[in-house]
Amino acid sequence: MAVTEITKPFLLLSTRPEDEAADAEYDSFVSMMEIAPEYLIQKRVDREPLGPIILDDYSGIIVGGGPYNATEPDKSDHQVRVETCLNTVIRECIERDFPLFGACFGVGIVGSVAGAVIDRHYGEKPGCITVDITTEGLADPILDGMPRRFPCIVGHKEATRALPPGATLLARGEACPVQMYRIKRHIYVTQFHPELEMDTFRDRLEVYREAGYYQPEEFDSIMESCSGQDLSTDNRLLWNFAHRYAR
């Protein structure tokens, strides 16, 4: 059921410099949130500074994935600018407990602002994993209607080793224990990609074939390992987020 009762759009903050990847990410969030495109405003932080963001103009903020790593030891001037812009918005969201959903890179950037320990101990190659919802997660409205265990897509060089102070673990994985958590009541981050399905995952793999997340010759085996998985299950997270915070 599409989310129709919206008076304020959501804001997607994109950091992917590849137009193909940025456009596809936008389309995926629109599709999985089941909202009309005019209710998801995309700002390409990779292209230009954000400028002032008035949170009250939006129903919620979404921080997408990207090629950056918060733990990069030698950050480019471009990455520093992007992170500075995002940090300002994220810090205000946390201070106000304003609805925010961060996926993949969102874990690194939101976690860094909130005081999490982010490092490369729990990195995962691109592929499909199964995550388990915690007892606290089963009671969270963003995970409403989800099975206790579900498959999802990951692919990251860094991850959360220790939660931010006061955060609540909502879903865990085997190789990477922290897969989803909540800060305060309305700030959510996932290490996995709830916006992706098989076709969009394949396209994403193609875009980042030479980015060091996997060996190019592994492409076919990665896709084969995900064959038969129901990757639509975790899409419900984004519908729940949109449905809860649309206003």
Summarize the structure.
The chain has 247 residues and is an alpha/beta fold. The protein has helices spanning 19-33, 77-96, 105-114, 135-138, 198-207, 219-226, 236-245; strands at 10-14, 40-44, 60-63, 100-103, 117-119, 124-133, 149-156, 159-162, 168-172, 180-183, 187-190.
Fold and architecture overview:
It is globular, with a radius of gyration of 17 Å. Helices cover 31% and strands 23% of the residues. The chain starts with 9 loop residues before the first strand and ends with a helix. It has a single domain, classed as 3-Layer(aba) Sandwich (Rossmann fold). It has a 9-stranded mixed β-sheet with strand order 2-1-3-4-11-10-9-6-7, with helices on both faces. The chain has 7 helices and 11 strands. Helix 1 packs antiparallel against helix 5. The protein has 247 residues and is of the alpha/beta class. Strand 3, helix 2 and strand 4 form a beta-alpha-beta unit.
Total strands: 11
User: In CATH's first tier, which class applies?
Assistant: Alpha Beta
**Biggest sheet strand line-up:** 2-1-3-4-11-10-9-6-7
- What's the CATH topology name? Rossmann fold
CATH superfamily: Class I glutamine amidotransferase (GATase) domain
Please tally the helical runs, counting DSSP H or I stretches of 4 or more residues: 7
- Sequence of secondary-structure elements: EHEEHEHEEHEEEEEHHH
CATH architecture: 3-Layer(aba) Sandwich
Secondary-structure class: alpha/beta
Beta-strand percent range = 15-25%
- Radius of gyration from CA coordinates: 17 Å
Helix proportion range: 25-40%
Question: Which stretches are poorly predicted, pLDDT < 50 over at least 5 residues?
Answer: none
Main pleated sheet: 9 strands, mixed
